[in-house]
User: Fold these one by one.
Assistant:
Number 1:
Amino acid sequence: MQGRWTTAARAFVAAAGLWLACGACAAAPGVRLYTLDCGGAEFADFGLASDTGAQDGRPARLANPCFLVRHPAGWLLWDAGLPPQLPAAVTRGVPPADMLRELGFRAWAGPPLADQLRALSLKPNDIRYIAFSHLHFDHTGNANLFPGATWILQRAELAWALAEPPPVSMVPELFSGWRSADKRMIDGDADVFGDGSVRILRAPGHTPGSSVLLLRLAGGGSVLLSGDLYLTLEGRAHGHVPAVNADRAATLASMERIETIARRTGARVVVQHAPEDFNLLPKLPAFLE
Ligand SMILES: [Zn+2]
């Protein structure tokens, strides 16, 4: 009876789109979050973190994680990090050692992603789904390692990313695998595994199809991976809109929506580029659950 009621209640909640009410549902079985080191970056002046000048003149170091979600129905990779070789569109031909001085920033890849997967006895083909907070080069660098995965793509994001000429920070060859891979095109929120435990929430503004990932872990806690909705912890505290941003009003509206969801679900918000948040997350082979 209990099981039937739970199933019926879940079906009703899903049908009504009232998934936020699902806080009362049983904890998601077996969902874990692994954090991978997919590079980093350093800025001599991180003024671009706010379009009001609030961060002008201050240097910054950024984390650049990828995340693996284990679900009983398969693995999901959330964001694909910085590429092993930075594309010329980003470096403008400046050698890595001179980038900070000449371009004001430098970036580096993490350990090879395939090696990090191996630490979990995984091969790229074992990953069932890949999805992205958005398609900028620092989130798609290893995407083409996963031709066998189903690519979950926001339709608006892909259309924007493929514009000619490419928008700033879009390097389409890094994620060209979308053309031949199995695809699940989405236009907003998506429930990846159909049980409410792993949800992509559209949060447009930084780019038209920017998204965040909301997880309900096996232990009952929720985690919200916020993509580039925020670039720094200070930016989250004060609602800084980055200078490189597609739609300011949309970004502010997304911040309001996502913060409301985080409060309602009690989710731990992870600012993906914040080294402070990266340092607090367990590293392979450890995980959150
Ligand atoms: Zn980024």
Number 2:
Amino acid sequence: MNRFEKLDKWLRTSEWNGILVTKPENIGYLTGFWGSFGMYLQTKSGGRYLLTDGRYEVLASDLATQNNFTFIRFKSEAPKDFIKTVTGTLCVESSLTLSELSRLKKWFKGVEMKVQSGVIEKFRKVKSQSELDIMRAAQAHVDEILLPFLKANLKRGVSESQLKFKLDQTLRGEGRFGLSFESIVGFGTGSALPHYESGDRKLKQGDNILIDCGVIDRRYCSDMTRNFCYGSPSEGYLRDYALLLQAQKNTLNQVKSGVKVKFLDSFCREKMGKESELFVHSLGHGVGLEIHEAPTLSAKSKDVLQGHEVVTVEPGIYRPNQHGIRIEDTMIVLENGCEILTKTTKELLSFDEEGRVQVLLG
Ligand SMILES: [Mn+2]
């Protein structure tokens, strides 16, 4: 079953006469169209329509032929040939802004529109072999460059933002990759803020370093967080790292198809003991066309892992004004375990001025 057929099947058993897809990642996922303006409408009676403007006429017509849907050119406000394709009830996505929704209400007069969130996102959770291959390749690029990059660039006095800038540049691989997000580079106390923005802080002996980064390869994101030291870190840092690494590894051993995500979240916190008070975010998230997508691995989620979902497990310990540690792997969920995509070592490595590396903790 292709993606359109899956949506057909969903529509047939739903209360809706059609679904209007407006979130760019969802339009892209279904149709292959990634332009800056477009809407995709699929109806219970089997109609499939992509609305976009003249700038994309050639591209959209080609995609329509390849994928067996109808391209409708947006010429004027309230495009009649698009609007008339659905009557009755129409499902719209929760990502719509209020102004977009009020525009659609003017278009689809007499159609009952309601929001149902996560319809396409649910399809996107489980990846195909070709999606998985791209995601493996994206992470392989990061694994290939990260340690050599650090050897060459961890120098006393380099600032977080300088290192971040160079890392982003290296990750982009001369244009072959995009960034899943701007890399997070934190030194010492800077790392203690979970979503830190790199600043002017300069690297000094004894600093710990937190790096969270990912690339986009053919529209799919990668995500990994690793921790390093410059010289010798504090005893407290080593203790926290050892504890967190053990808890993270134990949690990875629990990941497989059929496991409740809230179990994983609480399992990890249990393993962390009282340090779990310093673990101030959820355990992880799905990754794919978006860096954060379904499922969310949190205590509140009712999700159950399914085979070929791609998710992160990323517990952290954030000690205010001291240090922060987050160990994040991305993995493919399998029937009896998982395939870890993030292959950069989790041994705690210490770098010196000459780029020599020593293993502090294994
Ligand atoms: Mn993440």
